[in-house]
Amino acid sequence: MGYDPRLFERIKDALMRKTGWSEHDALGGRTCVVNGRDFVGAVEDGLIALCEKEALQKHLALKHCSQYAHKNKAVEGWVKVSMDALKTAKQLSRWVESSFNYAMTMPPPAAKPAKKAAAKKPARAASKKPAKKK
Questions:
Q1: Number of domains making up the chain
Q2: 62 vs 65: CA distance, rounded Å
Q3: DSSP state letters, 82-134
């Protein structure tokens, strides 16, 4: 995982007064979770933030923002912010606060159905050979 641990520490500092969140490895970096949803994180070359559709379009017009893609696939609702736009605590806290507040308004994600185990092959019946006579 190629995320900047210093950036993640700064994210956690910005969340210090917030409750109900946790952290884990996800989306190619280290993310924070609230209400069952990832909402902000540190990934290679910057920060990722969950945002509303209307806000996402505005963010993508900014010089230091781009659509976040994980494994070369765009992740809907997520923006990637380059380190150039995160130099101060105030700049960083705007992204963290906005993403946290948005995630808190969303219902928890639906539980994914459990994967079905592969059908077991029937056990072979033991061959019934006649017993040898002595």
A1: 1
A2: 6
A3: EGGG-SSHHHHHHHHHHHHHHHHHSPPPPPPPPPPPPPPPPPPPPP-PPPPP-
Assigned domain for 118 exists: no
The pTM for the full model equals 0.77
**How many whole angstroms separate alpha carbon 112 and alpha carbon 100?**
23
- Taking the C-alpha atoms of residue 66 and residue 69, their distance in angstroms, rounded to an integer, is 9
Q: Which residues pair with 26 in a beta bridge?
A: 29
The CATH code of the domain that includes 52 is 3.90.1150.30
pLDDT digits (tens, 9 = 90+) for 21-79: 999 888 778 999 999 999 999 998 899 999 998 898 899 989 999 999 888 888 889 99
